[in-house]
């Protein structure tokens, strides 16, 4: 549950490139790959908004199903799965978040890690900027590490 709360809060401190939304009424899509444990709380998120956009949570099991996400959480820890996904979505307007130990260092944008039973995160600032996103300084200040 903490992961989805983080994802929701991340989205409030990220500015997407103009091309990421066709209009102000378009859904804000949070995608989840490789884990269905969030099903029971997705209804809570879907009652919220990010700016003017209603939230929709979608679950995926295959790479070729993924499209139209603004924020994608990749639960898969196997690089053979998420590395091609990073390449595919590199300039798609999707913020990619994962928890594999090398996710941020290998092109992922935000990597979760647990330290002393607390969820923390690393931001790959270089990947985020290259994809055209702007991060609020408050989000940057909370990161355990910034990869530049």
TrEMBL record:
Annotated InterPro entries: YfiR/HmsC-like (IPR025293)
**Pfam families noted in UniProt:** DUF4154
So which domain of life are we looking at? Bacteria
Q: Know the name of this protein?
A: YfiR family protein
- What is the scientific name of the source organism? Desulfobacter hydrogenophilus
């Amino acid at each position: 549950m903490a992961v989805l709360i983080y994802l929701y809060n991340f989205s409030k401190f990220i500015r997407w490139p103009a091309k990421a939304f066709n209009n102000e009424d378009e859904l804000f899509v949070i995608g989840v790959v490789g884990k269905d444990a969030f099903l029971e709380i997705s209804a809570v998120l879907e009652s919220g908004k990010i700016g003017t956009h209603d939230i929709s949570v979608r679950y995926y099991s295959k790479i070729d199903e993924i499209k139209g996400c603004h924020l994608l959480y990749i639960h898969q820890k196997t690089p053979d799965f998420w590395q091609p996904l990073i390449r595919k979505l590199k300039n798609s307007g999707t913020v990619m978040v994962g928890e594999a130990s090398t996710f941020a260092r290998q092109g992922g944008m935000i990597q979760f890690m647990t330290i002393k039973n607390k969820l923390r995160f690393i931001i790959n600032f270089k990947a985020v900027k290259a994809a055209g996103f702007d991060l609020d300084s408050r989000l940057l200040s909370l990161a355990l590490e910034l990869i530049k």
